[in-house]
Amino acid sequence: MNESLKKDRMVLIISILILVILLIGTTFAYLVTTLTGDKEYIVRAGSLNLILTENNEITLEGQIPEEDSVGMSQDGFTFSVENKGNIETEYTVYLDDIELSEGEMRIPDSALRYSLEKNETLGEAKDLTTMGVNPNRVVDSDSLAVDGKNTYTLRIWIDYDATTEEASGKVFKAKLRIEASQPRGEKVADVLLAGVGENGAINTSDSDQTFITGTDPNNYIWYSGKLWRAVSIDPSDNSVKLVTQWNISAIPYNASGNTAFEGSYMEEWLNDTSVDGFLGNLREPEKFIKMDSVWNATLTTSASKPESTIMVTDAVGLLNIYEYTMSYSGATYRNGYLNNGLNWWSITPYSASGVRCVLYNGDASYNPSDAHGVRPSINLKSSVRIVDGDGTIDNPYRLNGDNDTNLSGTLLSSRYSGEYIRFGSGENNLYRIVSHENGSGTKIVSAEPLKSEGTFVTNAFGSNATFSSTNTIGTFLNNDYLNTGNGYLTDEDIAMIEDATTWYLGTAGSGASYKLAKYTNTTDNILTSSTTTAKVGLLRLGELMAGQFDRYGNNTYYWTITPYSASNVWYVDNSGNANRSNPSIANGVRPSINLKSNVQIVNGDGTLQNPFTLSLQ
User: Fold this and answer.
1) Which residue has the higher pLDDT, 580 or 132?
2) Which of 189, 462, 524, 593 has the highest CB neighbour number within 10 Å of its CB?
3) Count of Cβ atoms closer than 10 Å to residue 460 Cβ
4) How far from 131 is each of 117, 152, 221, 368, 585, CA to CA, in Å?
5) How far apart are the C-alpha atoms of 585 and 319, rounded to whole Å?
6) What's the pLDDT at 115?
7) Do 467 and 532 form a contact (C-beta atoms < 8 A)?
């Protein structure tokens, strides 16, 4: 922390004022706002009756920057939202700027940290910028059943690493704003059960799962930056099982000879809540996902329905081989909609030494624990609703709470892994968000390997397995790729890129955990000392978006940055597997870069059909 700032007396004023409570919807004849006492606010319209109760106020004066552990120990500002009406109510809590007094200067959001405790579950410390940009800072969104209640504690503090220039003598003033509405759209299960198009059908032959079948049903759903397919509906609670359309990454399932899903590398990756894993990069999973989903990981030597012998409870899992086969009822292995033309893991052990893997040609076979593609599966809560789309690939269903509009001015660092960005030029002008690994910026990667006049560009990795800005592929990325004369990037693109990023070069061998590409071991999360610094790099083995997003035969091999050994490097092949190769071989190139923290969205919604366009703030 800046030493001079430690000595300064900061003024951080968070005036939590409920100035506006908006009820969205035109079906009600009247709106009455009632104030009772000093801190209880009621919105009542028709059968909606939403109560917001403040339990205390927060005014912090004379503050100095604090470590997260100190900031999260504050008393904070507590409030609750309660539904005393007779229908379900949806709401969003916003944190809006209050106009400053004459002579005051505002502390920028980038110098502030916060945590949100909800129903006694303590949230992690985050940059305030992750809420979005005023007036679109979202504290939380949720729905409340009749008599439902959510209680919050919001804590905000000055970042320990804030500089004097950012925070000295400045103030931060904000107010809470609540927007409430009757639930919009129809529940996902209801929409799907009503019909999935002429190329699909509903199969009710299994009492435990109602399956969607066919060659190409209208069951595409866009959620959290990824395209999904709806697989089945659970009749007991109307939750809906989804699986990603494409392979999000490629990793070993587990160590050789260990076929159990529980405790596997696969289970850890899928449910890793850090920046390195799948669950940690999903949008508000507690809001959308059935977090206590049960997955059938029972060994079976056939494709018939497995016994319920080994059941694993996790938020994220994989499809079992029976669920895959049920998708092509009346079709063949090759043209059932769950065959995406790539190799990908199921959750089903075939023997003591093998786990089922669906192959690119649609056949269901078994393979040892090598690095095949990963298609994560989740169960949407029954309360999740569809608000847009028709379920086709070009117009997938959009979910309430994940259908953002008017994002102009929002920082890219607040967005989600997988969302599309218009970046670069010519035929290489589409990128995707990977993660926010460095905290304040946004890691992105080209949506597909680079092309030149329609042909994939290939490059040798180097003379050995260690990446640097001066080895063969590093020189290409940090010179030719950055040269605007070569047509990959524009001057405006280059201005958005961080000058230096740390790239992790941990070695992950056969049957090894994905974590070894970044950490010294799989337990204590100590970062590897094998690193290099460069402006442009590559994705690691097992990193998000290090998968194939097109069918076998319509893509190419491409390098990762991760050594397999001193003499081999991991690459992703055109069927979705990760394999190893001598670094002298020429493979495709998917550049990865970190964009600056002040890159903001100008337009778009982050989908393939409408990617974000960007500018510097």
Assistant:
1) 580
2) 593
3) 16
4) 14, 16, 24, 43, 44
5) 35
6) 94
7) yes
Tokens 């280059």 correspond to 494
- List of residues 6+ apart from 101 with CB closer than 8 A: none
What pTM was computed for the model?
Answer: 0.77
Beta-carbon contacts of residue 302 (< 8 Å; ≥ 6 apart): none
CB 461 within 8 A of CB 583: yes
Strands 220-223 and 397-399: parallel
Residue 19 has pLDDT above 50, yes or no: no
Q: Are strands 578-581 and 569-572 parallel, antiparallel or unpaired?
A: antiparallel
> What is the DSSP annotation of 48-78?
EEEEEEE-----EEEE--B-HHHHTTS--EE
**Residue ranges per structural domain of the chain:** 3-183, 187-380, 404-616
Up-side HSE of residue 218: CA atoms within 13 Å toward CB? 18
Residue showing tokens 């009542």: 44
What spatial distance separates the first Cα and last Cα of the chain, rounded to whole Å?
Answer: 25
Name the average pLDDT for the chain: 87
Residue 364, token pair as written in the block: 């269901």
Q: Name the residue with tokens 């990762």.
A: 560
Name the 3-class secondary structure at 242.
strand
Q: Which residue has the tokens 């004849």?
A: 29
Burial class (CB in 10 A: 0-12, 13-18, 19+), 528: middle
Tell me the per-residue pLDDT of 501-550, one tens digit each, with 9 for 90 and over: 999 999 999 889 999 999 999 988 899 999 999 999 999 999 999 999 99
Task: For residues 423 and 425, give the distance between their C-alpha atoms in angstroms, rounded to a whole number.
Answer: 7
Q: What are the distances in angstroms from CA 229 to CA 95, 324, 359, 609? A: 34, 12, 18, 17
Phi and psi for 492 in degrees, rounded to 5? -65, -40
Q: 587 forms bridges with which residues in the sheet?
A: 459
Distances in whole angstroms, Cα of residue 278 to Cα of each of 427, 476, 573: 29, 30, 21
Q: How many Cβ atoms are within 10 Å of 31's Cβ, its own excluded?
A: 14
Peptide linkage before 183 cis (omega within 30 of 0): no
- Degrees, nearest 5: CA angle 165-166-172: 135
- DSSP structural state of residue 377: E
pLDDT in tens, 207-249: 999 999 999 999 999 999 999 999 999 999 999 999 999 999 9
Query: 402 and 256 in contact (C-beta within 8 Å)?
Result: no
- For residues 264-284, give the mean pLDDT: 95
In the block, tokens 């904000």 appear at 174
Helix or strand or coil: residue 213?
Answer: strand
The burial of 183, by beta-carbon neighbours within 10 Å (0-12 exposed, 13-18 middle, 19 or more buried), is given as middle
Give the chain's length. 617
Whether residue 30 is predicted with pLDDT greater than 50 in this model: the reply is no
What pLDDT digit, counting tens, does each position of 473-492 carry?
A: 999 999 999 999 999 999 99
Instruction: Compute the distance between CA of residue 232 and CA of residue 486 in angstroms, rounded to an integer.
Output: 47
pLDDT score for 181: 74
Q: Give the phi and the psi of residue 288 in degrees, each rounded to 5.
A: -100, -30
Residues in Cβ contact with 102 at an 8 Å cutoff, skipping those fewer than 6 apart: none
> Which residues, including other chains, have CB under 8 Å from residue 373's CB and lie 6 or more apart?
247, 249, 250, 342, 343, 344, 345, 547, 548, 576, 577
